[in-house]
Amino acid sequence: MRYVIIGNSAAGIGAVEGIRQVDNQVEVTVISSEPYHTYSRPAISYLLMGRTTEEKMKYRDDDFYDKMRCKILCGKTVTEVRPAAKQVVLDEGSVISYDKLLVATGSEPFVPSFDGLDMVSQKFTFMSLDDARKLGAALRKDKQVLIVGAGLIGLKCAEGILDKVRSVTVLDLAPRILSSILVEDGAQLVQCHLESKGIDFRLSTGVKYFDSNRAMLVNGEMVGFDLLVLATGVRPNTALLASIVDIDKGIVINKKSETSAKDIYAAGDCTQTLDISSGENRIMPLLPGAYMQGECAGVNMADGNMSFDKAIPMNAIGFFGKHIITAGNYSGEVYTENVKDRYKRLFYSDNKLNGYILIGNVEKAGIYTSLIRERTPLDSIDFSLICEKPGLMAFTKEERNQKLGSVSL
Amino acid sequence: MAVNFLYPDYEVSRNDDRCIACRVCERQCANEVHEFLADTNKMVSDDAKCVNCHRCVALCPTRALKIVKNNNTYKENANWSAKTMNELYRQASSGGVLLSSMGNPENYPVYFDKILLNASQVTNPSIDPLREPMETRVFLGAKPQNIERDEAGRIVNNLPPHLTLSMPMMFSAMSYGSISYNAHESLARAAEELGILYNTGEGGLHEDFYCYGKNTIVQVASGRFGVHPDYLNSGAAIEIKIGQGAKPGIGGHLPGEKIVGDISRTRMIPEGSDAISPAPHHDIYSIEDLRQLVFSLKEATNYQKPIIVKIAAVHNVAAIASGIARSGADIIAIDGFRGGTGAAPTRIRDHVGVPIELALAGVDKRLRDEGIRDNVSIVAGGSIRSSADIVKAIALGADCVYIATAALIALGCHLCRSCHTGKCNWGIATQVPDLVKRLNPEIGYKRLVNLLTAWQHEIKEMIGGMGINSIESLKGNRLMLRGVGLSEKELEILGIKYAGE
Amino acid sequence: MKRVYVNEKWCLGCHLCEYYCAFGESNKKDMARALKDIKINPKIWIEEKDGVSFAVSCRHCKEPLCVKSCITGALTIKDGVVTINKDKCISCYTCILICPYGAVSPSEDGAVQKCELCVKTTWGTPACVEGCPNGAIVFEERG
């Protein structure tokens, strides 16, 4: 028996650990196109900032593959999957056969076709360690940076490099920053905070074309730059399985991480997942979900039984010490709290918490997250108390005794 | 009014170098002595509210607190003490009877402390309890007068109902109401584990505690609170309470505000009504009347359970005990004048009754002289403080002792003697839920078990040293006792010789 | 494995667990010296309302969401104890986002903090358990 895992990030590592929970014998091979020990992708902005090092940002200890008795093929890219023969083909031509295959190929930056982009000499994306190394090497105190995209990646990049360059300007088509996770007033709050640290914004406008080191904007403005970072979004790497399994927005999997093809599993950013907070299938390129999906795939590959069916969008992100935690979707009635350093929005309907946004004070946010993930009926708890203050006090005495007096899963 | 100002007896001494303002003292003081001042980040205290219960001292994690005696003094006067003067000021202000809790604190002689024990040397061997068997079991109840045999010559079991105890100690009566549910649970569980008995007091028996029945003495007192057939049959013995050492001759009064919830249900009286126990049993004006109640209770329990009659030690206690021994009662419990209470008028507590040592010796002698000692067992109570007190009490004629104050101290009581306020910070003498929960029976019962187990060990050591290997052989064995600092008359009443004799 | 369990029936809301926790972490011998004039940031804390109180700290889940969600691998399970490697933590707060007990909290040292059952202190058994005056916090094996 040999299990092959394509991908060496959260989902792939989750799968290795999942397999080993069930089966200590089976041969496991991990194939990674990146020539590195597994590392934390979201840590790259902290790397530029100097808050971590390449050594510390390793996602698992150096002896991980040994301990897990798994073979790691770094710097090899799978170019083809042959489901009938149960083989994968590597870029250097070799063929590896598998009994079960996990595709955890993640996502890649999506860059729209801007006129004149190919004429920009210093342009970067910000997804991988290589990206971070390249960008890091180009940073100088006299450089002006233009970041296209005020999403999570763009802004973490901005935070990571601000101190190392002359200026950072962030551009987005949307009228607000972090439009995927914040609503208007929250975005405004965070934007003010970022502006106070020195980041410039151009919102509600896009790039019309690039002219070497200048960007002509749709609103007529011209922004000069030395370095261009393109953070316009990501898309799932599904190409390997094209015409092999069902693919919609991403690779379609069930709650056991199985694709439509036998013995082929998929997990992480390359898949689409049911968001139980909205009931919609979505791409959720988030590390915790990727790990849990990968672990689930691993357990099921090794003939264990695990389901991952509690996916919701969720984000913990911070800029210059101001923390933001969000989860779920923002529909329904709204509980609002807006006092000094405590921005809070809870969204609920039909006796369920749908989502929330916390900015500033994020303590015990996980209690809200669990209400969404567990679809807890709000009339079974003291909802007005928990709105005010996340805590176990809002649960019934029996539930508290269960939570605090027994072994938890 | 200025004349009413009484300087606090004690003051809270806080070491500011050690205080970390964790506020545990503030949170744990039901008397609201401590307060946190946010502006200075400091704790302050109001000595006037302090009852000196040591809750804060015990819980302070940095040992920043102690309670010290105040040295504010009136002009010295051997006759008019500060205490007397303060009581007088209080009464002049209130017009009321002074109330107190726990046992008589006054400086009367403690005879146990004037009696010394014997040990074997050369002429008879002492016994090492770690190597040789030692019997601490005792049996309480009337003993048969003679051996009966059937036609075939076999011995007929004519033993009246009796109690078997693993050691000569029982927890004496403390009602549910005067002490908390958790205190009762601690006593009940400890009694069960130790193989002894505890006593419901006159407050009835909470339904949760019926499961401890074989380790329970159910009490019938003058108020007859909580008495019904199931109650009488639930225990291993029934005690008729005639009197209590702390307040002989008077009844009891549990104020209506404490008659709430479970307590009202257990006592079978409406919530909020005062529970007044009359001074006498209104159906007992003579030994003959007592006999009627004794047999009513035996009848109600099918002659299965021994009946205890508890009296306070008063002047003619021996004659009264003689009557009780003829009333059909199986056990006499005598409560000395140092016995504790949840509340008693101060003057009664401090000035009425006689010491248990003298009463016990007198009763034992009288019953033996009259040839009726085997009609009854004798339980002595009223400030048994240690295993040495127990050994002395048994040598003076007791079959067993009742302990209560010592048990409460094991549970955390610091003898602040403020039970009557109902705000016991140790969760013992209170019904305030937040305070009651401070006594975790899981901890409490183990401490009681520890205490009595330790005492049992000590008793074995002491009697082993005398060359005695069972409690039965110690009972009434006054040769094992000698007096020091006692008059001829005291020695005569105690029935013991002077040390050196 | 032994874990910390809480029984609110016996919790007095005295907050001593919080102070013992902070003291335990200080690795000093004397609590007065360790905590004098310090605002503590303990890893166990009391929730209280209307006479009900109880302590909350890490449950050391068998399947800890925080460990699975940690983006840098800073949170791991070591001999059953959910442990934080402060060197690797970048304070992204994903663990705070996911812990259903609210048991992971921010700290001043640039990493998150959580109860580690005093395995890194000199107490041996958790300090909060030692300091609880009423047996409301226990350290024992349960199913």
Write the layout of secondary structure elements.
The complex is a heterotrimer of chains A (409), B (501) and C (143).
Chain A: E1 2-6, H1 10-22, E2 27-32, H2 44-49, H3 64-67, E3 70-74, E4 78-82, E5 87-90, E6 95-97, E7 100-103, E8 107-109, E9 123-124, H4 129-138, E10 144-148, H5 152-161, E11 167-171, H6 184-197, E12 199-202, E13 207-211, E14 214-217, E15 222-224, E16 227-230, E17 234-236, E18 251-252, E19 264-266, E20 271-275, E21 280-282, H7 287-301, E22 314-319, E23 322-328, E24 333-339, E25 342-349, E26 352-360, H8 365-373, H9 383-388, H10 397-405
Parallel strand pairs in A: 1-2, 1-7, 2-3, 7-19, 9-16, 10-11, 10-16, 11-12, 18-20
Antiparallel strand pairs in A: 4-5, 5-6, 8-17, 13-14, 14-15, 20-21, 22-23, 23-26, 24-25, 25-26
Chain B: E1 10-14, H1 24-28, E2 34-37, E3 42-45, H2 55-59, E4 65-69, H3 82-94, E5 99-100, E6 115-117, E7 138-140, E8 148-149, E9 155-156, E10 163-165, E11 169-171, H4 181-194, E12 198-199, E13 216-220, H5 229-234, E14 237-241, E15 252-254, H6 261-267, E16 275-277, H7 287-300, E17 307-312, H8 317-325, E18 331-335, E19 344-345, H9 346-351, H10 356-369, E20 377-381, H11 387-395, E21 400-403, H12 405-411, H13 433-436, H14 441-465, H15 471-474, E22 481-483, H16 488-494, E23 497-498
Parallel strand pairs in B: 11-21, 12-13, 13-14, 14-17, 17-18, 18-20, 20-21, 22-23
Antiparallel strand pairs in B: 1-4, 2-3, 5-19, 6-22, 7-10, 8-9, 15-16
Helix pairs in contact in B: 4-14, 8-10, 11-14
Chain C: E1 2-6, H1 16-26, H2 31-35, E2 45-49, E3 52-56, H3 65-69, E4 75-78, E5 81-84, H4 94-98, E6 105-106, E7 112-113, H5 127-131, E8 137-141
Antiparallel strand pairs in C: 1-8, 2-3, 4-5, 6-7
Describe the model:
The complex is a heterotrimer of chains A (409), B (501) and C (143). Chain A has 409 residues and is an alpha/beta fold. Chain A folds into 3 domains: 2-108 and 234-301, FAD/NAD(P)-binding domain, CATH 3.50.50; 117-230, FAD/NAD(P)-binding domain (3-Layer(bba) Sandwich), CATH 3.50.50.60; 321-405, FAD/NAD-linked reductase, C-terminal dimerisation domain (Enolase-like, domain 1, 2-Layer Sandwich). Chain A has helices at residues 10-22, 44-49, 64-67, 129-138, 152-161, 184-197, 287-301, 365-373, 383-388, 397-405, and strands spanning 2-6, 27-32, 70-74, 78-82, 87-90, 95-97, 100-103, 107-109, 123-124, 144-148, 167-171, 199-202, 207-211, 214-217, 222-224, 227-230, 234-236, 251-252, 264-266, 271-275, 280-282, 314-319, 322-328, 333-339, 342-349, 352-360. In chain A, the strands form 7 sheets. Chain A has a 5-stranded parallel beta sheet. Chain A has a 5-stranded parallel beta sheet with strand order 9-16-10-11-12. Chain A has a 5-stranded antiparallel beta sheet with strand order 22-23-26-25-24. In chain A, helix 5 (152-161) links the parallel strand 10 and strand 11. The relative contact order of chain A is 0.13. The mean pLDDT of chain A is 95. Helices cover 30% and strands 16% of the residues of chain B. In chain B, strand 20 (377-381), helix 11 and strand 21 (400-403) form a beta-alpha-beta unit. Chain B is globular and about 90 Å long. The termini of chain B are far apart. By secondary structure, chain C is an alpha+beta fold. Chain C has 2 domains: 1-57 and 118-143, 2-Layer Sandwich (Alpha-Beta Plaits); 60-114, Alpha-Beta Plaits. A two-stranded antiparallel ribbon of chain C has the order 1-8. A two-stranded antiparallel ribbon of chain C has the order 2-3. Chain C has a two-stranded antiparallel sheet with strand order 4-5. The termini of chain C are close together. Chains in contact: A-C, B-C. Chains B and C meet through helix 1 of B and helix 1 and helix 2 of C.
